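Blinded run. Sample ID left blank on purpose so nobody reads anything into the name before looking at the predicted structure. Input follows.
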Amino acid sequence: MQRLVSILFAFMALYLAYQLVYGEQGRKRHEELSKQVEFQELTNDRLSQRNSALRAQLSNLRNGHDAVEEEIRTELQYIKEGETFYRMVDQ
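Blinded prediction complete.
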């Protein structure tokens, strides 16, 4: 009887060790989730920096006439009256 209990105990210990490493809530799953969290944090940091740059640009556009003019000239290629537009083309 004692031998049966010892075998049963050993089997349960092996089963629990297996579940600890390879189970649904085990160490492997924890490592996978840690990698996903790290990747998501890097993505969030990059997007946060981008948002800060866009907020600064928006604030500059709202508060400054020169910034609006510069944005229109670069993005839409507008020119003022009396200016001559020259386009340089590489050949």
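Unblinding after everyone has recorded impressions. Residues 2-76 form one domain.
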